[in-house]
Amino acid sequence: MTLKATTSLPDARAFLGDAPVMAKRRVAEAGSASETKQLRVAIVHYWLVSMRGGEKVVEELCRMFPQADIFTLVCNRDRISDFLKTRNIRTSFLQKIPGAQRHYTKMLPLMPFALEQFDLQDYDLVLSSESGPAKGIITRADALHVCYCHSPMRYIWDQFHVYRHGLPWVGRALMSITAPMLRAWDVTTSSRVDLFVANSDYVASRIRRFYDRESIVIHPPVATDDFAVGKGKGEFYLYAGQLTTYKRPDIAVRACTEAGRKLVVIGEGEQLAYLKSIAGPTVEFLGHQPFNVLRDNLSRCRALLFPGTEDFGILPVEAMASGRPVLAFDAGGARETVSSPQVGFRFAEQTTEALLETMAAFEEVEDDIDPHAIRAHSLKFSSAVFRDRLSGLIEQQLSTHGDRPADVFRRRPG
């Protein structure tokens, strides 16, 4: 399977007749990288309480638009990067609620109200980073709103029952009551977006399914320069990430236990005790580890085992940037990153037996795999490629913002 080229869509919507003259002039003149610095830019992110893939995208957006202000529902400055701490970050009224930085997910029913309180009337370009509610902000009528969608909200759509079953009875009852209203709000606010950008073909299909909108695919940035090809043959299989049910770490643990293969597990989560109970002597649990330990293990592993389904999945690309192959479940973003036998193998069923068969096939050709070819493949997903593609798209949309009718980014035909 090969990577799909980015598709193109028609140009963005027209100005309304009463749009502010100076704002129209700023947007009309923003046709190059230097001229976009004149724009008033807002970056809207759902919450800033950790540094994961979504927050790394926000960092890149800030590098593209250093003049931008950040709007977020809740922020924990102790858990974000030093770079983001230098930005002008504005939070919602949820920030003032005691315990909000730890229990923000429980405030989901309040988030649409908090989001719509942000006043973005001074901004010409709004970039929303969507996984939780972010795209539902209210922009000025003539502003260009581009949504970079990591995923439609999983907890009210395809993962609704998974999240609901993990709650106490009071939480389940509240979620059952509020979820229909949140879905209606989520679909309605999709019309506030001029252009959707999806982080993978998998997410693009979910945007189409839930919002009936088309999108352009630009893969998220991976800091490939932070990794390097290791020396010698890999020593062990590696699983890294949260030890949660939907990521299926149990498949990796069971497979390596049954095959007698050494497995290193990096991560923590509610499944840790259970995984230890089913693990054999060849499985080693390291718990949470700093980045330098993860990087070292990625460079020394035989292959990364990736049995879950992710919207994109940055970790497999980081493994490939270290010159190591990936054995991944054939779903989600892995179909786009683990795209040939030269960089890894995909298994069709999310079972221990399927992974065991794939490990056997991999070990037959393991000595013939070229680590440097794997790393070269990973560079297609670098931060530089992300910035180049997204900035080019935004500049194109800004330069033609007033040339098309208002419905060109609305619902697809039929």
From TrEMBL:
Record CDD domains: GT4_WbaZ-like
Residue ranges constituting the Glycosyl transferase family domain according to the UniProt record: 231-366
Record's keyword terms, sorted: Transferase
The keyword Transferase appears for this protein: yes
InterPro entries: Glyco_trans_1 (IPR001296), Glyco_trans_4-like_N (IPR028098), Glycosyltransferase_grp1 (IPR050194)
Ranges where the Glycosyltransferase subfamily 4-like N-terminal domain occurs: 52-225
Superkingdom of the source species: Bacteria
GO molecular function terms listed in the Swiss-Prot or TrEMBL record: transferase activity
UniProt cross-references to PANTHER family, sorted A to Z: SULFOQUINOVOSYL TRANSFERASE SQD2
Protein name per the record: Glycosyl transferase
Annotated source species: Rhizobium anhuiense
